[in-house]
């Protein structure tokens, strides 16, 4: 039995869960999400909790069991609390600004980079060097954060670039062998 898959998912107040065949729809204060479950997996509500079960014991069923449970749990958490990802921009002259539905990044290139925010993702910018992406879909928020980070990954010598707030950049000693 999958350790993750067998855990029931508590349904918070103000969250409605409906099943339509293989499609799970979750509605809450943050909005609505729906997703089709992977094959060989079924979900139901028992005692006010969502229980995900698998149809067989083959390898693919076991893999999909934990996956489906995690996806449904993320949907429930997303419509009740939401998800957020914090990014920091380090470097002289590196900054971000909001221009309508776009973000403008100045990252030391010869041109600014414009990034269109995905549907359902909002942004808060602090001091032009820190931004917080918020949304109800964990997958979309994470993908947007990864795309933004890829514009200028942090480099190991001076630490310049875009990094996640909790990320630790392992610094390297430069050519001088220890002098700073």
Per CATH, what is the topology of the largest domain?
Outer Surface Protein A, domain 3
Neighbour order of strands in the largest sheet: 11-12-7-13
Level-1 CATH class name of the largest domain = Alpha Beta
Number of domains: 2
Indicate the overall shape: elongated
Word description of this protein:
The chain is an alpha+beta fold. It folds into 2 domains: 9-80, Outer Surface Protein A, domain 3 (Alpha-Beta Complex); 83-164, Outer Surface Protein A, domain 3 (Alpha-Beta Complex), CATH 3.90.930.12. 19% of the residues lie in helices and 38% in strands. The protein is built from 2 helices and 13 strands; from the N terminus they run E-E-E-E-E-E-H-E-E-E-E-E-E-H-E. The model has no long low-confidence stretch (mean pLDDT 92).
Which features characterize this protein?
180 residues, alpha+beta, Outer Surface Protein A, domain 3, 4-stranded antiparallel sheet, 3-stranded antiparallel sheet, 19% helix
Give a brief outline of the structure:
By secondary structure, the chain is α+β, with helices and mostly antiparallel strands.
Topology (SSEs and partners):
Elements (H helix, E strand, L loop, with lengths): L8 E2 L5 E5 L2 E6 L2 E6 L4 E6 L2 E6 L4 H22 L2 E8 L4 E5 L2 E5 L6 E4 L4 E6 L3 E6 L2 H13 L10 E4 L16
């Amino acid at each position: 039995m999958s350790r993750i898959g067998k855990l029931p998912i508590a349904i918070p107040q103000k969250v409605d869960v409906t099943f339509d065949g293989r499609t799970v729809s979750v509605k809450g204060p943050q909005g609505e999400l729906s997703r089709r479950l992977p094959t060989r997996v079924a979900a139901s509500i028992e005692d006010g909790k969502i229980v995900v079960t698998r149809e067989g014991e083959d390898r693919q069923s076991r893999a999909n069991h934990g996956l489906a449970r995690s996806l449904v749990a993320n949907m429930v958490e997303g419509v009740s609390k939401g998800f957020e990802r914090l990014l920091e921009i380090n470097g002289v002259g590196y900054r971000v600004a909001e221009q309508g539905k776009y973000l403008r990044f100045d990252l030391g290139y010869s041109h600014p980079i414009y990034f269109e925010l995905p549907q359902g993702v909002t942004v808060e910018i602090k001091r032009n060097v820190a931004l917080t992406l918020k949304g109800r879909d964990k997958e979309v928020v994470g993908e947007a954060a990864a795309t933004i980070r890829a514009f200028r990954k942090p480099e190991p010598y001076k630490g310049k670039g875009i990094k996640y707030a909790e990320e630790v950049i392992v610094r390297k000693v430069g050519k001088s062998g220890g002098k700073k």
